């Protein structure tokens, strides 16, 4: 089955990331048309809640799925166990179905893909999604002053080079990371395609004025407020403190400014941060809401400007935040901090908002004084400009071309 694909992911289809970044692409692969089977790791609670429904949906689209249970305990031993099972099940599936292409999402999957290529000669697409090894260090997950972590880092840097060397084709998210890949694996010969994180423009639609007002009412936002928004997790990489500082400056100068945080991660520590920043008197103008995927377009679409501040680090040259594509799809300008992936160039090219250097003392004040002009960048024209680069259909065509190239060499 030279045109069939085995897609391997350590991320779950039922994770929030699965709904926004994985499933839309998988459905497009199947529509090429191209036989598709998925091997993924699912969190037990999420699988119990939605696994059977998703399995039925995938089956109705002709997509096979082998979900494995993500190990939530035992630390690194649990991860090693998961990886060993990934090897075992992927080998079984490959020998059973003889897939023509193995599509490996990130490093764990590519470790398995490299072995499958060595054993069977199958073509392997390494969909990197970022510099995973350096992200572990930059995110303070691996601490290089710890001898064990330092040894693991050195080992995985060697593994990283071998994975790039084993790939038949490589997908990166940004142009900025491409020269780094050649430094990591100077002898690699695989072609590299850059496909940024895109959004489904059929799902993320431009809201009408009536819809914006209805959503504001639902979320407790004043009808005439200037709404800053943030979408997503509040974990390792996201600079909530700086975003709150920007809101604080804006809200002090303007009584109409409110901050909408669309996240499932709000904790007591975040309330403590508001107090520590001296923003307690503005707490009634900070609105925190969870959102299901179907609600996200209207929630972000009711705001005037999105904030996306991400911890700057070496590994972030490879990052392409999905939230930015989703914001632009609903015509929402974005303020980002400099140095993250290709965002600097993309923002200027698409006239999509502003990029600021957070190390400069006046950077936040400059944005506060520009709020109204930034808002005017939004709307249908912004959506149209972004659609040509960041619509899911653009990514679909890119992946289709890659598959066709791989299949021609089988």
TrEMBL record:
According to its UniProt entry, one GO biological process term is: carbohydrate derivative metabolic process
One Pfam match: Glyco_trans_4_4
Record-annotated Glycosyltransferase subfamily 4-like N-terminal domain positions: 73-196
Q: Does the keyword Transferase apply?
A: yes
MF annotations from Gene Ontology: glycosyltransferase activity
What are the entry keywords?
A: Transferase
Entry annotated with the keyword Plastid? no
Glycosyl transferase family domain mapped to chain residues = 214-371
Listed name of the protein: Glycosyltransferase involved in cell wall biosynthesis
Gene source species: Psychrobacter luti
The organism's lineage?
Answer: Bacteria, Pseudomonadati, Pseudomonadota, Gammaproteobacteria, Moraxellales
